[in-house]
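ok trying this again, last paste got cut off
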Amino acid sequence: METNGLPNGLSNGLSDGWSEYPSSDEEDGHLTPLEDLVPEFEVIDEDIVLEEETISSFDPERWYPIRLGDFITTRYQVMVKLGYGSASTAWLCRDNEQDTYATVKIYETGSQQAATENNIHRYLRSINDGDDFGLDRLRFCRRSFRINGPVGSHVCMVYAPLCMTLEDVRNRRGGKFSLRLLKSVIYTFMPGVWYLHSMGSMVHTDLHPGNIMMASENVRIWDGFVQEELMYPTPRKITADRVIYKSRTPMIGSDAFPVICDFGKVRVGEGPFLGEAMQDAYRAPEIVLGIPWNEKVDIWSLGIMMWYLFEGKHLFRNGEPNREVTRGAQLARMVSLLGNPPRDFLERSRCSYEFFDEDGNLHPHLQNIENTSLDEEEENLEGEEKEQFLSVIRKMLQWRPEDRPCALNLLLDPWFNLETGADS
């Protein structure tokens, strides 16, 4: 069973596992801002909501006011903004101790996500028994520490630098993956999913294209990336107490490979687990219906992700303001695509009666959803190639979690070894 979302012996407390660094001009201060070293840059109007400001929970007082050129301790100098998440910003830094590059994530003050992610990384290192199949497909934290900000301390986590997310790659390719690229990418990071599930008894719960990134150890990529920022600085918004930068996305080299990132929402334990999880567009039916769930929700997410990357569109809507209001519509859409759920599956839910009758049919007020099917909505393939693709998608998008394959069985699925046309 789950133990507070973490293995026994690991605390949620921020005091565990962190190094401490004081706030001072020497350690955390603004030293040689990069704005003083680069050509003119575009200044964005203060009225425009930018990057992390778009997050509904964003509170500027809780986010560290970093600037390009700053030193995070005396070791890491901030060179380029890589991105932001729901509780952190990510920066490419020059590691002056190792004479290389690193990504440093700076979390908002008091972030529980930072505590969870740090504990997960410690746990993953603790269970490594030498059988590292899949371990290199997980993005590990190199070290972590705190820095002091204006209203409290901030957790910093250091990683090897990573290039694009799969979402970035999709956008660069016109909104869709080719079939060959899809197979290669999914097959390459699938061992990481197996490692989480089998070795770590962990459920990621947040697998989507933004949390799969391309790793590269080619230092020349990062040298060129920094030079690009110096020559063509990114636009930024300047306020009284901080600078908000637009993120810059690095290109990927031929040696890049996908890795699984962001373990802040991981659940640890044998399960089953209870409660909400997953983004709206990736929610498995057992979560929508309030049924206890396990690692098979990740397999559902993978199926949704594969569809999205290849078709260029979501199977289910994302970002709904009220999950309770939209559960019926989401279940009706599932029925339209997958057929009626098995009755024994509905019997596991305490609320299925709100949406289905005793025979497992949708209530009449939900039956006005457009009738469709996976076959009708798949637009890129024909004939046998289409049937083969839909076959593996259907295996992953099963109502009953136990009917979905495990990650290892997916790796062994013959679909990944079928010949496809040349990748564009």
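PB: full thing came through this time. The CA atoms of residues 86 and 315 lie 24 Å apart.
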